[in-house]
Amino acid sequence: xxxxxxxxxxxxxxxxxxxxxxxxxxxxxxxxxxxxxxxxxxxxxxxxxxxxxxxxxxxxxxxxxxxxxxxxxxxxxxxxxxxxxxxxxxxxxxxxxxxxxxxxxxxxxxxxxxxxxxxxxxxxxxxxxxxxxxxxxxxxxxxxxxxxxxxxxxxxxxxxxxxxxxxxxxxxxxxxxxxxxxxxxxxxxxxxxxxxxxxxxxxxxxxxxxxxxxxxxxxxxxxxxxxxxxxxxxxxxxxxxxxxxxxxxxxxxxxxxxxxxxxxxxxxxxxxxxxxxxxxxxxxxxxxxxxxxxxxxxxxxxxxxxxxxxxxxxxxxxxxxxxxxxxxx
Length: 329
Prior knowledge:
CATH topology of the largest domain: Quinone Oxidoreductase, Chain A, domain 1
Radius of gyration: 20 Å
Number of strands: 15
Strand content: 25-35%
CATH superfamily of the largest domain: Medium-chain alcohol dehydrogenases, catalytic domain
Order of helices and strands: EEEHEEEEHEHEHEEHEHEHHEHE
Mean pLDDT: 96
CATH class of the largest domain: Alpha Beta
Helix content: 25-40%
Structural class: alpha/beta
């Protein structure tokens, strides 16, 4: 079968070349389950890979895309039957292994989950890695013991994909959410997702005191660097911070003071290599609490043919919420 896919290759001067190509099944990896992909996503990591601005790609050539959803077209494993609606996120897709920005892909059986109701392949991609990551952050705060009513929960990078779903999920579960963003024009959008109030990200992006006035019962941080350090410094006694991103940077210019003087706990969230039982729990949490209309309101849809041109906009912070890719247009 012939189909279209986005393919990344490396030039002789080690630059990334991205193009939309036609290929057939013979070029797909030798794996157990073949999926007819209907939708994928465009994430920050995907945009870095496509533009060559980050050391994301580990094997060349590569089909990028850390997320995909569709239906099983063929399977060598009886666990997966033709027609099963499936989703795959992480597992090195779009980094070490061929990913989701294609109309057809082959995957290991352990990388797949059945799409839980009420999600469809399209709405599963409105969730994608971003939503899955947000759900794991929320679960970390829950396991820590954070309850609605305990105080404000800060979400940094709130206008992005992870941040937006974290805001919507926490608000739906009854938490009082404070959304941090550098885009003042997104205030109405964030309040529509459930944010109780909005704060300017510039309050967090510069070096701050190692221990600050107690403000946050919990934090979901998608930004890293000084933003994460300042969030920890202002977290309340025995509060918790879930860190999952590095949009500002991978450094952590902090001290031990929040951790040894206030008992703050910092949870690191890895969304790539997560056992499937834990994945299923995160998806079940979203199935219970994420309103599909809210999810739609935070999503933009583009076609596979638009991805290459759209990626630089995402890196530049000009895209809000989630970007769904309809791979058939």
